[in-house]
Amino acid sequence: MKARKPIYVARPTLPPLEALLPHLETIWDSRILTNMGEFHQQLEQQIEAYLDAGPVTLTSSGTVALVMALKALEITGEVITTPFSFAATAHAIDWVGCTPVFVDIEANGFNLNPACIERAITDKTRAILAVHCFGVPCNTVEIQRIADKHGLKVIYDAAHAFGVRSSPNVIRHGDCTVFSFHATKLFSTIEGGAVVCHSAATNDCLALLRNFGIVDESTIACAGTNAKLNEICAAIGVLQLAALDQNMARMKAVHMAYQTHLKGVPGLTTLTYPEGVEPNYSYFPILLGPDFRCARDTLHHELKRQNIHSRRYFSPLLSEASPYCDRPACTPFGMPNARRVADNVICLPMYPDLSMEDIVDICSIIKDN
Ligand code: T4K
């Protein structure tokens, strides 16, 4: 077996260093390093124009953006959410003193099952925090119908969904939509995030929460935090945004190559997108059924032995993680679909400059050629 350089599940894209240098010179000259400077303002406006979904509040991470959205909407009590997500989704609920109530996902997908949401509503429920998992939009129409019927707020964790286009625009749904711009994301500011929200009052609150609740030199309006994106990260974001469509086209090519090389593999299901969605192709999860040639973990370890570091996103389920598994209020229901998916999923390496040769190799290992 030839020695192979490690292939990770994600690999950050970066702007050319020579494109960043003039921006760094501007920052060095001005010595404005943070606190909503020139690049921060520029990026916020550009993202607003790009998303066409309402005002944007940039933040220092997706996690803090989730916490701020929950705070700004004054959510207390129980929040219904998915067990099939990254830890940040549930932790944000816990950090604002609410109880995450996990319910099952759809039988044929990765997103919350609206019927399970409705069944879990109690007199303590105040919000639904749904994830557009792997960039596939949730059933936003049905979730909104349930929320309206029961007087609940809706927050979408769109950490995987920046650049996803749909008609109507999925980012316009819910009370707040939250993005992550972490290094592993297709659009990245190294660390960073954002909240998109349509209510002027909530946006004012988000702006305050981001900066310690400070209004001016003599007024502190609320107990805010420090969630400001610094100028270097914002300048990188400006360059990354300009390259996003090109990077997304490369991701599409990687996605299509996987689809071609994995077509017809017994017991293996790949991700497909619903009609009317223009994906960002950020993740390539495969699901292994009983007809696949080996168990999920066997394949995961075989790939790793060959220096290919796929990930079992998202296993363990959040409902089984230490902060939540012993809290009956968090797990009142069985979650058979989430359980099956968490036991059988592998996310394959996915980044714009993943070579076709590497894709063929990865698929050969999966097929055991
Ligand atoms: N909601 C959802 C649904 C999310 O998926 C996430 C984050 C959030 C909220 C929270 O957003 P942030 O607060 O992070 O903005 C990674 C990312 O760190 C995390 O942002 C992401 N979701 C999650 C799905 O994936 P890990 O623990 O798997 O990361 P890590 O460090 O193992 O990175 C994966 C691979 O990427 C590494 O094996 C190597 C490569 N890598 C990573 C970094 C950080 C690089 O090549 N360079 C790098 O700088 O969570």
Compact summary:
It contains 12 helices and 16 strands. The chain has 369 residues and is α/β, with parallel strands linked by helices.
Pick out its properties:
369 residues, alpha/beta, Aspartate Aminotransferase, domain 2, Aspartate Aminotransferase, domain 1, 2 domains, seven-stranded mixed sheet, three-stranded antiparallel sheet, 12 helices, binds ligand T4K
Topology record:
Blueprint: E1 7-8, H1 17-30, H2 38-51, E2 56-59, H3 62-72, E3 78-81, H4 87-95, E4 99-102, H5 114-120, E5 125-131, H6 140-150, E6 153-157, E7 165-166, E8 176-180, E9 193-197, H7 200-210, E10 214-216, E11 219-220, H8 231-262, E12 268-270, E13 277-278, E14 284-288, H9 296-305, E15 308-309, H10 322-325, H11 336-344, E16 345-348, H12 356-367
Parallel strand pairs: 1-15, 3-4, 3-5, 5-6, 6-8
Antiparallel strand pairs: 2-9, 7-13, 8-9, 10-11, 12-14, 14-16
The protein binds ligand T4K.
Describe the structure.
It is built from twelve helices and 16 strands. It has a seven-stranded mixed beta sheet, sandwiched between helices. A three-stranded antiparallel beta sheet has the order 12-14-16. The chain has helices spanning 17-30, 38-51, 62-72, 87-95, 114-120, 140-150, 200-210, 231-262, 296-305, 322-325, 336-344, 356-367; strands spanning 7-8, 56-59, 78-81, 99-102, 125-131, 153-157, 165-166, 176-180, 193-197, 214-216, 219-220, 268-270, 277-278, 284-288, 308-309, 345-348. Helices cover 39% and strands 16% of the residues. The model has no long low-confidence stretch (mean pLDDT 97). With 369 residues, it is α/β, with parallel strands linked by helices.
